[in-house]
Each structure stands twice: as structure tokens, then as C-alpha cells.
């Protein structure tokens, strides 16, 4: 069987995760969706609550639940991840409750804002690495410099938000550290210099016939989304909506692709529903998404009712248990993602089949 070359060839001009239609939709379609929803809230601030509700229901709930298909989709997953499934949520719940009870909603909102920035940026780096892998490694592009460039703009952005000192985030009080303007400007100069170097390297790679289009286009959308979310859009809520819609939709689609590849050999008896939903076809992909919604929506509604009930029993507390429970799921998702996606894939046979098809 012919193996793919480890180093990029001058003939590599795309290096998609799947195919041109999928990847261009993944890169640009999701970006346009995110910009469309955020722009609507800027043009008409009254639309923010409807857009936020739509986003949470159609993307937020489902993207958290999608983690379970990777975490516990197969019997071997559940055996390997027993602590992550059962033990870690309890520890996160205790931590969120303790923080909320002692420091109130301000502490939780601040933790969420910074945690979400780290999580979304880390996902961008992970996806960029997927594109790098598909291109054969990109030996002409230093991986450490690439990672520094990817992180530089979000760091510049959050420093800018700190300098702006917004009093509220998602209509709740928030605390942000004081950052002087000169520090924001230094971060801006360094980030801009790195972006110029990044662009010049792509021009050089293009001239040599070594440019991996998928990797380049994905990183371009990363830079554009974070620049608008944290630097260009003044309103912290609309900026957050832009990057969060972009992040959540990407996660949903990428996990679907992961499951599509994992079950490329067909339906498995030990994961009938998930493997059946992950088979080829637009209809299966639609049912995959609808199933996530059908499961996630009542679960979150139940969670909110439990939180509201607890609030009624604990009057005068500093923070709502609805917020505590919601953030518990979010931070559990953040922590789990930092572990399970760094492990080696557990389906080498299916990967070989996909490689054989490409060759």
C-alpha cells in the first residue's frame, strides 16, 4: 500500500481535512454565520437576546454534548475515561460552587471570559495542526513561530478588553485587571510583526509551490475573527458572540468529521446509534445534529430547573446555582477537551482505509 509522504510536496496546493466543498464550508461558511449573527446584534442591539438564545440552543448545548461522543462513544472510551466522565464533573462542581459562594458572580464571569478565550484559541491551534498534518507537516513553517503568531492576536485582544474596562459581560458584573495603553500597544506591535512575517512566509511558499491552501485559509479566518471580536467590535457581548458562534459551530462539525472517520468501516454493534448516525450522506449528518439537539435540550432544561430549585432553597446567596451548574458543564468540557484530543487516535484501521482511498 502506498504511504503518504511525510514532507510536503510542491504539488500540495490544498491539503483539505475532507474535500473542497466540506472544507470551504467549514472555513468560510461558519465564519460568515458567526459574522452574520454578531453583525445583527451590532446593527440592532435589541436582537442580542434572540441571537444569544438561538446560539445557546442551536450550537452551545449541542457542542458540549458532542464531547461525549468522543469521551464515551465506545465501550473502550467509557472504560478509559471513567474518571473524566464521573469524577471530574464533581470536582468542577465543587470548585465552581465554592468560588461562586465566596466571591460571587463577578468571579465566575471573569473566570469564564478568560477561560473561554483560552479554550477557543487552543481549539484554533488544534485545528491548524490538523491542517498542517494533512499537508504533510509543512517543514518550511516553524511550528513554534506559528503557534506564537496564532496566540499573539488573542492576547493582544484580551489586553485591549482589559484596557477598555467593561463593567458588565452578558448583562452581569465582571472584573477585569487594569491594563495600561502602552502594554496594549506593545502587544499590538509584536502581533502585527508576527502577522507580517506569517504573510511573507506564505507568499514565499506560494511562489515555490508549497503553499497548503487549507492551512492558510483556516489561519486567515482565525486572525480575522479574533481581530474583530476583541479589537474592532467595541461591544464586549457582540464580540464574544462572534468568536463563540465560530468556535461552537466548528467544534460540532469537526467532531462529526471525527466520528465519520472513526466509523468509516460501517456500523458497529457496540455503538449502533452513534456509528449509524456517522455514516455517509446528508440525511445521516442532519439526523446526527438533530439527535444532539433532541438529547441536549431537555437535559439543559432539567439542569436549569434543578438550579432554580436550589436557588429557592438558598436565599441571599452571592450567585445563582443555575449559573454554577452551567459553568460546571462548560469547564468540564474545557478540561476534557484538553485531554482527549491530545491522545493518539484509537481507530488505525479506518485511518488506513481512508489513506488507501486517497492514494
Q: What layout of secondary structure does this protein have?
A:
Layout: H1 20-43, H2 48-71, H3 75-80, H4 82-103, H5 105-134, H6 143-164, E1 168-169, E2 172-173, H7 181-207, H8 213-232, H9 236-262, H10 272-277, H11 282-313, H12 321-340, H13 348-358
Helix pairs in contact: 1-8, 1-9, 2-9, 2-11, 2-12, 4-5, 4-12, 5-6, 5-8, 5-9, 5-12, 6-7, 6-8, 8-9, 11-12
Descriptive report:
With 359 residues, the protein is mainly α. The chain has one domain. The chain is built from 13 helices and 2 strands; from the N terminus they run ααααααββααααααα. Strands 1-2 form a two-stranded antiparallel sheet. It is globular, with a radius of gyration of 21 Å. The N terminus and C terminus are likely disordered.
Global outline: globular
Terminal CA distance reads: 8 Å
- The Cα radius of gyration reads 21 Å
Question: How many DSSP helices?
Answer: 13
Structural class: mainly alpha
Order of the strands making up the biggest sheet: 1-2
Quick recap of the structure?
The chain is mainly alpha-helical. The protein has helices at residues 20-43, 48-71, 75-80, 82-103, 105-134, 143-164, 181-207, 213-232, 236-262, 272-277, 282-313, 321-340, 348-358, and strands spanning 168-169, 172-173. It has one domain (20-358).
